[in-house]
Amino acid sequence: MHQFTSLFLGFLMASVIVRLWLSQRQMTHINKHKNEVPVAFADKIKLSDHQKAARYSCSKLHVSRFTLAWDTIWLLIWTLGGGLNVLDLWWAELGLSPLQQGIGVIISLTVIASLLGMPFSLYSTFVVEEKFGFNQTTAKTWVIDLLKASTLMAIIGIPLIAVILWLMNQAGSLWWLYAWLVWTGFTLLMIWAYPTFIAPWFNQFSPLDDESLRSRIDNLLQRCGFHSEGVFVVDGSKRSAHGNAYFTGFGKNKRIVFYDTLLETLSEAEVEAVLAHELGHFKRHHIKKSLLLSISMTLAGFALLAWLMGSNWFYSALGVDTASTHNALILFMLVMPVFAYFISPLFSALSRKHEFEADEFAHSNSDYRALISALVNLYRDNASTLTPDPLHSMFYDSHPPASIRIDHLKTVAGE
Hints:
Strand order of the largest sheet: 1-2-4-3
Structural class: mainly alpha
Largest sheet: 4 strands, mixed
Order of helices and strands: HHHHHHEHEEEHHHHHHHHH
Number of helices: 16
Distance between the termini: 61 Å
Shape: globular
Strand content: under 5%
């Protein structure tokens, strides 16, 4: 067995064990505390809602375990099991150019992987989300969304794949730098285009028509020195009962978006506080920092891929007989998440730091008590657990646990 094969299997086994261990810790911790609402929330969240959140969280954990097992099996089939090698040889028999063969292999692998993961997506949407009263998606909407996403992937994804593979084949030893520049340009273009050209293909966006709330939001935006294309309400209730709010786009194409489900459950003061929190991410440059971090990691990834692409052992150690640019790219995308899993707590920690900073900004520009009230309502309405396991939270949670986040807000406010 090649040394890299052993390394890959070792990291894969370790990541699976850690994932299952963390999943069990989370489930045990949630069930241990499900019969008593944490003191900080006792007067705000009913025991029945707390227990619903526990059942919902555990149901999602059960699905994630089956998904993990399924994905791990297919990762081994595609790599050491020779699945990618068989697919590549089949396309090679068609006598296409290297570029056409590479595009064909990548597209067919993507389609097969999507089909293999579809049962879990369907179960999560139409069983788990339905069971807990969150699913609003009909079978017709689900199919239409799938067709739209597939069409969008074909229109945008195929040309991008073609350009990257062409650069890998034709651009010489510095192809990875040119490919990175193309990817960075594509990323910025998508961020700019998403709110105007892509998102409306899936959802309806309408200007906020509540004059009182709109006036309150405009005052907040003026105080914070924030300018956007507008404040919009999206028909999130078409697919889910979960509520959310977000910023999208950049430059003059920025938009503030509220889910209609969110506006139905929060007061004006709470909506203002939630928006102040989101503005905090912008004013503290979290979006730029995250984008720069992502772009930097992509550059490192392309450089690493360039080195691996020239090493024959990289292919043979992962079950592929023929060295090629497209096989290198596919193998890299398949196996790198296995190795990157163990640094995920670093990114989660950075995200939680940003959330604390955004909360501090919200405290400075709105009523922090309204933000606390909004957070409690969101935790309740989205059935988010109030008692996550600390280690599980460290690995996966992009937001601080409810009690820690609210305690931090109170400390900042001097309570």
